[in-house]
Fold this protein.
Amino acid sequence: MNTPPAGIPPSPGMQASASAMHGASLKTQLNQLIRSREEATPEAESPKNVVHCYKWQCEELHNHFSANEIETHRRKIRQNNYWGSEYHHYMKVLDTLARQKAHEAHGVTSEPTADHMQTMAIFIRRLLKHGGLSPTQINKSRHSIEDQQYWQAEVDLFQPLIVLREEQMREAVRKMDQKGCKRPTAQQRQNARGIPPNNTRNRPPHDDIAGRTRARTREANRVLRSSSGNGSGSAKAAR
């Protein structure tokens, strides 16, 4: 049997070339690995861009005090912005709580309905009353609202009611006349309309003008009657 010839050993030049190619490949792979690591790891922020977390630090400090001690010591802070931030935060909480009450009563909707807003307004009124305001003070505050559309809604409500009451009063007087009964006095008619005695309720400025006009009219009528009386007396004296 013939023995196959032995393989030809590689020349020294070929070995050097293969080693160089293998080394270059490893170097390329190493550079790629370094670049990928650099891209995956963000650079550390500059100390001037780092915001100190005082909230976390404060929570750690609170661990050394009771809740009552924290509240007592907090009141020593005299910074306006500090208490302003807390106030605005509580107002947001209050608004959220009022909306939650409305949703519990009338369901969740994309836009609040009149029922939702009514529930929220009544909820706030109760809180004001619980805070020490009397119903009179709350109503006085309500009357400082400047939104004319707000007041127009009340005018549209109460004006027909007044017309209905007056119609009912006229009907009652007509029936009393038919029966020969005594007519109600002006004060009784005012009471039926819900008008306070002696007209002591607060009037807006235009009602004051109307009142002065009525007063001038009454004075003019009185002077006219007085002049007419004096004229009659003079005529009698002449006769």
Notes: The chain has a mean pLDDT of 77.
